[in-house]
Design a protein that fits this description.
Layout: E1 10-16, H1 20-27, H2 31-35, E2 39-44, H3 51-55, E3 61-64, H4 69-79, E4 84-87, E5 92-93, H5 98-107, E6 112-120, H6 126-140, E7 150-152, H7 153-158, H8 169-181, E8 185-194, H9 196-201, H10 203-218, H11 223-231, E9 240-245, H12 255-261, H13 263-287, E10 293-297, H14 307-313, E11 316-319, H15 325-337, E12 343-346, H16 355-364, E13 370-374, E14 380-385, H17 402-412, E15 417-419, H18 429-436
Parallel strand pairs: 1-2, 1-4, 2-3, 6-8, 9-10, 9-12, 10-11, 13-15
Antiparallel strand pairs: 4-7, 5-8, 6-7, 12-14, 13-14
Helix pairs in contact: 12-13, 13-16
Length: about 450
Amino acid sequence: MRSPRRAPKLSVVVPVLDEAPRLVAALRPLQPLRDAGHELIVVDGGSSDGTFEAAVPLADRVLQAPRGRAVQMNVGAAIATGNVLVFLHADCRLPPDPDRAIGSALARGSRWGRFDVALEGASRELPMVAAFMNARSGASGIATGDQAMFVERASFDAIGGFPALPLMEDVAISRTLKRFAGPPARLAERVVASGRRWDAHGAWRTILSMWALRWAYWRGADPRELARRYYGVAPRHPPTLQVFAKAPVPGRVKTRLAQTIGAEAAVSAYRALAERTLATAAAARRAGVVGAIELWLDPESDPAAIAPWRDRFGVTIETQAGDDLGARMRNALRASLARGVPALLVGTDVPGYDVVYLAHAASALERHDAVMGPAEDGGYVLVGLARDVDVFGGVPWSTPEVMAATRTRLAAAGANHIELPPLWDVDTHDDFLRWRDRPLTVAAS
């Protein structure tokens, strides 16, 4: 006998960028959903107009992520607790009782779907444009972002979320979902979307422009070039994620911890922490938060010992070089910066790393020279650079003054930086006990 379908809990994910003047009006109609037990997550892509602050009292979670709807929606989905995800643009309003409409569609066997759309604005052509959008979507099974796409969480996870594209992410995920989960449910209830784009540029000009972009995409054009044409600026490259590590060999890793739990147990703890870090890195790459993942081994480690990590997590292996930790970190970061790509550098023994933390760091590099993740013990667990800044010289490594000395170096270099919330790493037996009692997850909770 089949178990009854669980009633849907919706997680509504709203990507935003510089929407402060309109945000309260956009989020206020969603409050009844929150009152009914559903969830509202707002993901800011680096606004400079107070959008983040305006969203805080009206959402369950407000996150920061690199600019780009696909990345922002993936980051929001990473912490969503609902079994159904709804992706809503900030200039769109859901119809009344969307939870009932979505629940009915799922009960009929659909695993994903979208609403019809109505466009609101001054242009007389908008009703025609909306009718054409709905007809085209009904015939093709392709949903657009304005139609408030919804998808069962299990299906979204199974396909890896939105492809990390700077444009056409809605078309790409629709094509994948059609293959994986069948055609979408078409709900006749209407999302009301802003017609400001058509009003600003002219209805026919906008229609022709969008069709030209879609045609180019279907013919295989680079989505980055299409995004440059659409937005007028080239999308930025996601930062390289560099993981400093050692091969998991007894007597070489977690030596302080080994004094209390034994060398083999210390290696097992190190391996579990490192693999969790790499799994989180891989999840951040799928979300589009980071680009390449590099595993930087200390010079005494044998790369063959971590070949399974390379194959399992899709990382490249590099060797650290330099006389001390600061020199090795600077050389690694410089390698990415020399290619014109910012970089984030992390260790392997921090249970608090998750996709959201890395997204916050990557977002910070879009507006700052450096980002730091302080450690509770006075050091730091993450450093990221958007330009080559020597912040490591003269730092008293392995002391509680590391972070303070680094702040001084940043100020002396004239580098503007931002600090993330502090995390803790596993060094001592007390840290080990704290970690052992903490549930391990890849995504934030």
